[in-house]
Design brief:
This protein has about 140 residues and is mostly helical. The chain contains 6 helices and no strands. The protein is rod-shaped and about 105 Å long.
Length: about 140
């Protein structure tokens, strides 16, 4: 490295060296230093950073849950339906589009006295005494 003698920092260091009777110091490699002073420098241990998890859009996860959901067993109220529709409207993936179609065909449930007492919306599936009844007869009330 080339050092300019006209640099103020260099002049200040030279003045300080004269003031404290500094001696010229020789440069050593790490190996020479370790041999001369009988010491060892610590070898830095490289720790790998954990991989960043893949960011998944929460609306896509919700869309998949909507497609799997039985709205007779787990009904939703109007405000929940409206908020999900608003969130899924802007999504262009096929799962979100299918979930949006399913939501639009779903009838929201009004909270009743039993629902309020239970703290959640209860199942709206009709109970049928005949076990051989078809699935079509077990529609939501």
């Amino acid at each position: 490295m080339e050092v300019s003698k006209n640099d103020n920092d260099v002049l200040n260091w030279e003045r300080l060296a004269e003031l404290f009777n500094a001696k010229s110091v020789r440069e050593m490699s790490v190996g020479e230093y370790e041999a001369e002073f009988d010491t060892k420098f610590l070898v830095p241990v490289r720790t790998l950073k954990p991989a960043q998890p893949k960011i998944v859009d929460p609306w896509i996860i919700l869309a998949e849950e909507i497609l799997e959901r039985d709205f007779c067993e787990e009904p939703i109220d109007r405000s929940t339906k409206d908020s999900w529709v608003i969130g899924l409207r802007a999504k262009i993936d096929p799962a979100s589009k299918a979930a949006l179609t399913k939501l639009k065909q779903t009838k929201p449930i009004i909270w009743g006295k039993k629902d309020k007492a239970a703290g959640s919306l209860l199942s709206r599936r009709k109970k049928i005494n005949n076990p051989l009844a078809s699935e079509a007869a077990q529609k939501c009330a």
